[in-house]
Amino acid sequence: MPGTRFPLEVQPRIPAELNRLSEVANDLVYSWDRSIRSLYHRLDRELWDGCGHNPKVFLRRVAQDRLDDAASDRSYMEDYRRVMAAYDAYREHRVHPELAEILDPSEDLIAYFCLEFGFHESFPIYSGGLGILAGDHCKAAGDLGLPFVAVGLLYQAGYFTQTIDGQGHQQVSYTRSHPHDLPVVPTLTESGQHLTLEIEFPGRTLRAQVWTAQAGHIKLYLLDTNIPGNTAQDRLITNQLYGGDREMRLQQELVLGVGGVRALRKLGVRPTVWHINEGHAAFQLLERCAYRMNEGMDYDSAMELVAAGTVFTTHTPVPAGHDIFDHHLMVKYLQPMASALGMDFDKLYALGLNSGDGFNMTSLALRCTRFHNGVSRVHGRVAAEMEQSIWPQIPHQENPIRHVTNGVHLQTFLAREWISLFDLRLDDWRNELLNEDYWQRLEDIPDYHYWSIHKALKQQLLQRVQDTLVAQQQRNGTSDAVVRRMTRHLVDDDNDVLVMGFARRFATYKRAGMLFSDPQRLARILGNAERPAIIVFAGKAHPSDHPGQQLIKLIHDYSVHPDFIGKIFLLEGYDMALARSMVTGVDVWLNTPEYPLEASGTSGQKAGLNGAVNLSVLDGWWDEGYTGDNGWGITPRDEHFGHEQRQQEEGNDLLNIIEHEVIPTYYQRDGSGYSHQWVTLSKASMKSTIPRFNAQRMVRDYVRDFYAPARDQRRKLEANGASLARELAAWKQRVRESWAGVRMELQVQPSAHLFHDDRLMLRVHGHLNGLAAGDVKLECLLGREVAGDEFKVEQIAELSAMGEENGATLFGIDLEAKLAGLQYYKLRMYPYNEAQSHRFEMGAMIWI
Ligand SMILES: *Cc1c(COP(=O)(O)O)cnc(C)c1O
Stretch 183-205: mean pLDDT, rounded? Predict the structure, then answer.
């Protein structure tokens, strides 16, 4: 049609009785509270889906008569009042009693920085696992009543929307959303102005403005450079998540790190603990240090304070997940920061050096924080090994990297039907998320009742698969006959098909192709008409990850292959909404990462808490989650076998388990309409996952093991004009100057053969090169040899200083050799100062 389209929006008038619908549209509580969301979608389901489940947009478009009808509908109004009362009660809620003993909301404040946050599909500032984890962390921190703020970026185009064409190629599109459509409001200064801040950029000053998103108790501050006055290029810095080139990524990270700290400062928000979630935000360390120096401290002491109060979480062993910036980019952008820190650029650059080229954000974060963790037990170990060069002389098993295993936000991912059942049968379950024993009560739910809920959820998923697929195929011009063949098992009246799901980012280490390691065999397994089984795939690949896109094409090609049509499905547009319906509706959740690259993996946790049974490589969280009776684990083959062989052998395990365990257990009917054995397995999955892998457990662990110690440590160093920080910095300087010349000599070599109760007498000369006896610790490690060359430590004993002898410091110990079977001892020395956060934080240690 010719002619210009002039924008026009006719909004309904929200009836006064319903005016709180607008209020809660601006509170991300709706992202996890389904009863709030239902107040919207009950008014107009089609419109709700059409506007991406976005309450603000919905309220501007919903028809006036729907609102008026609702306002005069008794049952709607009753629900409305009940939901609003529950919302008010939530907002009144205080700090969880267990945490109230550790943190004091009137004094403590945690600031959490991340480049992406996944709260809900209507707020597209996330890409995948990292963002959703950050969203879940905020949600759980709010549920627990923690004093907490989060800082991120407001992307207008967000991450891309995915479609898959008829050839299996991923198509990428971006939709821009105006802040006006998002659950944010301008952050105002005291005088009522929109808060802005400035960052020095090469040849110009960049300005950013700040938006506030409310999520129950907590606030999320989001920075945005799309403002007049910035250059057209600069206005795009916060346009796309993980878009643009390296330079744009560096710019984004400066906005987040430097800008984020400035925003909090301007707001008068004074965090006592800072949490850097992944290296992207690590520039905030430099900004905070520069600020302390501006107040008169020297660099070293200022950095001691900054580091002591900061927690850093690293999220992946995959190299591409660690940002590395070239020297020329760093020179271009970080010169002003080096001046603010009163140092040469080279010294700043050295903070990010690692074994490879370039400036590594993870290295910066590890050097300038004192509390570090990976995201599962396996990953903590792997990260400690990977990053060992930061503490060059410390065996990686002992370096300061620890772990907190990820968890997921229960209310976000638990199906509404399960929530209703829990409300009916379990009292006060929302306050029992940290109590493992409590969840044994799931056993009391009769099997038939339990199964009827699961079956209804599966039905909803199959409906969704059908709808998505039909739309996808019609758009791609697939013939109706083919579409009918594709969907034939979905519309089966009986609908008892076994459904397996695989959805995650398509990255090569996740090995989505492993299921097809023996395609004929898989076709045979899935093709058994007596025991039908289907597999649903979904996921995005980063637009520049070509091997990841190849995987999408591979799955697509199988999904239309005659052997697999109607058995293998590939759904486009993976987002939080599709993730929710998949994890709540499948029977089995598959995960096939290449060990040890998964770090944690959280989708399996989402599936497990809904009673789906995990079948996964024993990597990431599943290495801890698998109990032997709550699913299946594939033991990873040794790394020296190489990618191909590992994939082949683990793929073989996978098919064996599906063929000989999953399908027979699922179809073990014994005359009833479902398998009791399966229900037992499913309940075991649910009750082991809910209390151990929910985000409140994760946040509680952070509070106990990281936030509170970081707060205490910073406080200790900061007291009395930061005297301890200054002393510690000066002491480290002395150690650094002397350490290369420090030596040890064993004086008396004890007999290598002792009997029980004999004494092991050790005397060591320490040549301390100017350090005092109190500046070091000497230890004797007693142990035995285990497999290979490994030395297993059984006992550690400290040697004490015994005076001076021949110009050296004499250290000694007389040990009773009580541990029969000991084989070896070793002696080591390291610098020691009580004021440190971790005894090995200097990374210095020598051995005899
Ligand atoms: C949970 C989730 C992820 C992360 O899943 P992993 O198992 O960690 O790969 C990614 N995308 C979406 C939409 C999710 O909900």
Answer: 97
